[in-house]
Specification:
By secondary structure, this protein is an alpha/beta fold. It has 2 domains: about 300 residues, 3-Layer(aba) Sandwich (UDP-N-acetylmuramoyl-L-alanine:D-glutamate ligase); about 120 residues, Protein-Tyrosine Phosphatase, Chain A. Helices cover about 40% and strands about 15% of the residues. It has 19 helices and 17 strands. The strands form 3 sheets. The protein has an 8-stranded mixed beta sheet with strand order 4-3-2-5-1-6-7-8, sandwiched between helices. It starts with a helix and ends in a 7-residue tail after the last helix. Its EC number is 6.3.2.12, 6.3.2.17. GO terms for molecular function: ATP binding; dihydrofolate synthase activity; metal ion binding; tetrahydrofolylpolyglutamate synthase activity. One of its GO terms (biological process) is folic acid biosynthetic process. Pfam families: Mur_ligase_C, Mur_ligase_M.
């Protein structure tokens, strides 16, 4: 079986969330447990860090992987969705899973897959765990797909869990209040496994605290341990000062340029602290991590995260004159964070290329955008896409003006043709819109 045949088979035969939404979800963990049992329970053959949350979980996963790689660990990284290639989801030391490995997995296990009838996501999780085990990784960073409690990744028992933040997204699936959403995210907290919450929030923290107490798990708030202050963009990335709670002050560089990325720093560093703290983890494990997780490994991981892990689509500058930026922000807190980063950019006129999927609550998102921008409405080429005409009408009803285009590349070309060198063009609204950008390197 060729790689292209394997991918076509997965998309054609299995329900895929990013294409059809909630209908693709298989309730419960039965399928992934059966699949992994059939595969020999590969998830038990390597150590893991589990990362969940509404926004920032992908970037935090990449940052953790980059630091661990810099410390000399053979590191697996599982994230979703992908932007250009399916193999981006499954990496070892930054290298995507080879096409031939994907094809071999599908061909070898096709009969079992057809009998089990799992979702696309369940198969990718099983594939990742199997690949990491066969590659003998020292540690894998595993990003939650959706929610946490019933997510297919939630069959691992990690060394530590990280929950980045809680915001409005997928409320039709996870619940109609932040507390209900937090309850689903808190489902990744395991008995006796420490959990880090990146940012304190009075509305959702009690949910995490209660779950941690039920599990007998230590709970730490990243922002209690580290104060992070933005120092602006320099030639080598976004600089920030770091003040640990126990004293000292340091300056670090981060390859991820969005100001919102700084909110992930305290959580990531707190996870690393947990790994190297004997009274929280098993003494021998903590001493091992303490010896390897040096200050230089942290500095290198932060400064080279894009190079080391292949992260893209997060406040990524595609060109200058005019400045073209893309960001995968796709919900209210994500859009708010991107617009916050936009305030640090100098420009004459702002051009916004936007597209969304159907299941987003536009009423909460539209009001966030600046009225003075020129809009270019588009849609991704997936069944879940919100029709660009419908999107445009929703914006126009709120007093915004703009033109409609069939896809993101035509929208971007129109924006570039109308923009002056001093202008800024931002492409955002959906991971799947950003994924279709021709300018985003494969």
């Amino acid at each position: 079986m060729m790689y292209s045949e394997a991918i076509d088979y997965l998309y054609a035969q299995l329900p895929v969330f990013h294409r059809i939404g909630a209908k693709a979800l298989k309730p419960g963990l039965d399928n992934i447990l059966k699949l992994c049992e059939y595969l020999g329970n590969p998830q038990e053959k390597f150590r893991t860090i589990h990362v969940g949350g509404t926004n920032g979980k992908g970037s935090s996963s990449h940052l953790l992987a980059a630091v661990l790689q810099s410390a000399g660990y053979k590191t697996g990284l599982y994230t979703s969705p992908h932007l250009k290639s399916f193999t981006e989801r499954i990496r070892v030391d930054g290298f995507p899973m080879p096409d031939a490995e994907v094809a071999h997995f599908v061909e070898t296990h096709k009969a079992f897959i057809e009998d089990l009838k799992p979702s696309f996501f369940e198969v990718t999780v099983g594939m990742a765990f199997d690949y990491f085990a066969r590659q003998n990784v020292d540690l894998a960073v595993v990003e939650v797909g959706l929610g946490g409690r019933l997510d297919s990744t939630n069959i691992i028992t990690p060394l530590v869990s990280l929950i980045t933040n809680i915001g409005w997204d997928h409320s039709d699936i996870l619940g109609d209040s932040l507390q209900k959403i937090a309850y689903e995210k808190a489902g990744i907290i395991k008995p006796g496994v420490p959990v880090v919450i990146s940012e304190y929030d009075a509305e959702t923290y009690p949910v995490f605290k209660n779950r941690a107490e039920e599990c007998g798990s230590d709970i730490l708030i990243g922002s209690d341990f580290y104060k992070v202050t933005d120092l602006g963009i320099h030639a080598d990335g976004r600089h920030f000062s770091l003040e640990p709670y126990d004293g000292g002050k340091f300056e670090l560089s981060l390859a991820l340029l969005g100001t919102y990325q700084l909110r992930n720093v305290a959580g990531v560093l707190s996870v690393l602290k947990v790994l190297s703290t004997p009274y929280i983890l098993n003494n021998s494990i903590a001493e091992e991590f303490k010896a390897k997780l040096s200050e230089s490994a942290v500095q290198a991981g932060f400064a080279k995260v894009v190079e080391l892990t292949g992260l893209k689509g997060r406040w990524q500058i595609l060109q200058q004159n005019p400045t073209v930026i893309c960001d995968t922000a796709h919900n209210e807190p994500g859009i708010l964070s991107v617009l916050e980063s936009l305030q640090t950019v100098s420009y004459q006129q702002l051009h916004l290329v936007v597209g969304f999927v159907k299941d987003k609550d536009l009423s909460k998102v539209i009001r966030l955008f600046p009225k003075g921008a020129r809009f270019y409405f588009c849609q991704p080429d997936i069944p879940r896409a919100l029709d660009a005409e419908v999107l445009a009408e929703a914006f126009r009803a709120e007093g915004f003006a703009g033109d409609v285009f069939p896809d993101v590349n035509q929208a971007l070309e129109a924006a570039k043709s109308r923009a002056n060198p001093a202008d800024c063009i931002l492409v955002t609204g959906s991971t799947y819109v950003v994924a279709e950008l021709n300018q985003l390197e494969a």
